[in-house]
C-alpha cells in the first residue's frame, strides 16, 4: 500500500520547535522579526504575503511589510535593503521574486546581508551549501524536500536519487544536500534523453519541472519514492503537481501529494530561518 507523505505533519513539528526557540529568545528580550519586501500588487504575491503574516502571528514572529512601486529603480531598492540590513530590530529579509525585469537581480542578491538572508539569495549562503555546510540558511523548497524525507525516515545513504531540475533555486542546492547524506545523485532536466528509464532505476525521484501531470505511471516502479515539487494548473484549472497523482499513487511505494506536500512545509522552513537569524544576532 502506498504511503502518502503529507507535509502538514512535518510543518507542525517544525513549528513546535520554533515556538520553543521563540520562548527561549523572549527570555533574552529578542523577538524574531521578518521584513517582507514586495514590489507592486501582484495577486499571487499578496496572497503569499498574507499566508506568511498569518503563520508569523500564529507562532510569535513579528512581520513588517515594505511595499514599493513596481517601477522602483534598482538603486532605490538597494537603498531600502541597506536600511533593513542596518536595522537591528529586523532579523530576516524576504524579497519577493521574481523581480521586475528592469531590476538588476544580481545586485539585489548581493545587497541582502548574508546574516539576514532567510530566503538564501546571497551567493555566500549558496556557496556554503556547495561546500557541504548545511548549518546556515538554505533555499526553502529543497530544504522542505529534505525535511520530508527525514521525517518519514526515508534512507538516503547509498541510494540512487534522481532530481529532475537543474536550477539554483531547487535542483542544484538539493543535489548538494542529498550528497551530504551520502546519496548517489543524478540530475536530469527537460532535455534529458530516456528520462523514464533513468527515473525507473532510482530509489527516490524528486520532480520539479512545473508541468502538470507530466509524470505518469510509465516513469516509476512499485518501489519508487516520489517527492513532487512541481506546482501548476492542470487542464481543468486545478492545482497539480508534476506527477499524475491519480495514476501514480496506487502503484508506487511513497509519494507526496500536491497540494499538501512540499509546498505546505516551505513557509515553516522560511520562518525557522528567521528564528535562526534572530538567534545569531
Summarize the model shown:
With 281 residues, the protein is of the alpha/beta class. The chain contains ten helices and eleven strands.
Can you give a write-up of this model?
The chain has 281 residues and is of the alpha/beta class. The protein has helices at residues 7-26, 43-59, 74-86, 105-111, 123-130, 140-151, 171-180, 195-200, 245-248, 263-280, and strands at residues 3-4, 33-39, 62-68, 92-95, 160-164, 184-188, 204-207, 225-228, 232-233, 239-240, 254-255. The chain contains 10 helices and 11 strands. A 6-stranded parallel sheet has the order 1-11-8-7-5-6. It has a 3-stranded parallel sheet with strand order 3-2-4, with helices on both faces. The chain has a two-stranded antiparallel sheet with strand order 9-10. The chain is globular and about 55 Å long. The mean pLDDT is 96.
What are the salient characteristics of this protein?
single chain, 281 residues, alpha/beta, 6-stranded parallel β-sheet, 3-stranded parallel β-sheet, 10 helices, 11 strands
